[in-house]
Amino acid sequence: MNKVILQRSTISVPSNREKMLIKSKGLKADFIMYDLEDSVSLEEKDKARRMLVDFLSSEDLNDKVISYRINDIYSPFAYRDVIDIVENVGSKIQSIVIPKVESKKHIIWIDILLTQIEKSIGLERKIEIEPSIETAKGVLNIKEIIDASDRIRSLVFGIADYTVSLGMFFKGISGHGEEEEFYPGHRFHYPMSAIAVAAKSKGVLAIDAPYGNFKDLEGLKKSCLISKYLGFDGKWAIHPSQIEIINEVYSPDEEDIKRCTKIVNTYEESIKTGKGSASIDGRMIDGATYRLAKSILDKANKIKG
Ligand code: COA
Ligand code: MG
Prior knowledge:
Elements: E1 9-14, H1 18-24, E2 31-35, H2 45-58, E3 66-69, H3 78-89, E4 95-98, H4 104-121, E5 128-133, H5 136-140, H6 142-146, E6 154-157, H7 159-166, H8 189-201, E7 205-208, H9 217-230, E8 234-237, H10 243-249, H11 254-272, E9 278-280, E10 283-285, H12 287-304
Helix pairs in contact: 2-3, 3-4, 11-12
């Protein structure tokens, strides 16, 4: 059974926005992801990196789990994004999001570079990585990507760049869940399932793309449910107002806990009498249902702490 790691909400914070950096200290997201990529203009890349180093060096963020996103690895910024941040504040970094990962070569690049810096600064644990799958090539090569390093903490779905890569038409700008009546089905089902399957084949997390319409909390909820039912563990937020809903949707609720507890108790009683199957309210349960219910209770217990 997969280890339970809690990363329901990941708030993306543009690293060049002082006010947002400060605000991030008080946010109740499971993960804070400081962005150096698409929410920072080209002119402010160096400034954003410096601001992030200053912020992380000077603030006490001990109760936060911190990641950050580097720029495209073929840009002139990416190597500095890794070196400057990890050399200066590596001890505070849990993971690094790598955009547009398309092959194992990209993972090997970051893996070796991190190994060098960790040795140089004497960091004993390994910094994790979160490859973002957001191109056609990334989806095609997902198996070699997930197999390329034991640093991988999650696979992240990047919906906007995926849409660009496929040349998919769009109207809604929020991600999945908005303006999708044009296609009979869920048009992101294939890449999302590929991501979930690859992630779970290694026991790592699958993290969904953000929902851009931060005023539409109902749409956000729907979008969370789509990925939750596909096996995703959490979703990025781009605005503080989204964190609570994301945490809520990716957590088992009271009804889930009651249902799963009943399954576990009934099954455990049944197995004592040598029977591997039983019924609850006219529905069959067996060893697989038991494992399913246990996995949800494990998650609920992890959330309770
Ligand atoms: N992280 C931290 N704080 C944030 C935030 C974020 N992602 N988004 C908004 N805030 C803060 C604002 O600074 C403001 O703070 P205040 O109450 O101290 O004034 C408060 O939350 C309310 O923000 P609001 O005025 O509703 O939004 P905005 O117009 O300032 O910003 C966006 C809207 C969409 C531009 C902004 O949320 C944003 O840039 N989000 C992140 C985008 C991103 O990271 N993209 C890349 C990943 S996909
Ligand atoms: Mg992207």
